[in-house]
Amino acid sequence: MLKSILFTVVIAAAILSAAFVFDGSDNDAFSKNTVLIQGDQRRTCGTMENLEMQYEADPSYRLRMKELEKFAEKYSREHWNERDSRSVITIPCVVHVVWNTPQQNISDDQILSQIDILNKDFRRLNSDTVNTPPPFKPLGADCQIEFKMARRDPANNPSLGITRTQTSITEFGQNIAVKFTALGGHDAWDRDKYLNLWTCNLGSNLLGYATFPGGNASIDGVVICYNYFGSVGVVSPPYNKGRTATHEVEHWVWLYHIWGDDNGSCSGSDLVCDTPNQGAEFYGCPVYPSLDNCSPSVPGVMFMNYMDYTDDACMNIFTQGQLTRIN
Q: Which phi and psi angles does 14 have, rounded to 5°?
């Protein structure tokens, strides 16, 4: 019911908006998510595959996730409109740089650029909020989370929040070896005190992946391919503005992909009340409004949401409903 009410308001705003015009003549709009791609480069996130691997390794985790989901649903229902009363949460971060070639041993500046992007995106201080279409702007949220580099390591020694490990492994893919010193990576710091971020060469056209809450503490955190981490240094377009980490950290605080990973059936959900129903992921830089089989009328899909698969330059919004789920 809440989702229905919110989208009545959004659709009305879309009709009144003069800044973005839809003339109804583009009958190909439903398939734009499959053609709006820069070359052959598509965003690839391995989080859902990683989740299935964790379920297989620990069947009890699936049950814990179901219990956690019950709590999140109840909390979201009872607190969805309380955003003004929340306090800003600051999360200490450690970045584990696991490198095989000198290029993969990314600079401190590249690392710090990523932390800066996370802070801007999560606080809705990113300059490209101006690109959020008017119908969706009222839904834009300051997630009230900030990130800082850890100043103490787990032994309470002074630290810059960066570890560096040379490895013989040339490509990690979904292999969790990157998270273990004995396997050629670096052990996680205490997940109850730090957000662990690993950078390495993932290969396999994989940009990154994350863990959801409640799983194995030794693998908790986010992994990003070294050339999609931050906005300076050895970054590769169109994923050179740090939004891969924004996307993956949002998985870490328990957001799902905006289309619900339902293979276009419209029956899945990201479990957020104010994001449009969406059939499948969108790539590249779509033009507003973009429609699909699940949202066939204006305002269409929220392809500019950080939890879609569009290019870094086209992502610019989290919603109030996503903020509630994060909390």
A: -65, -40
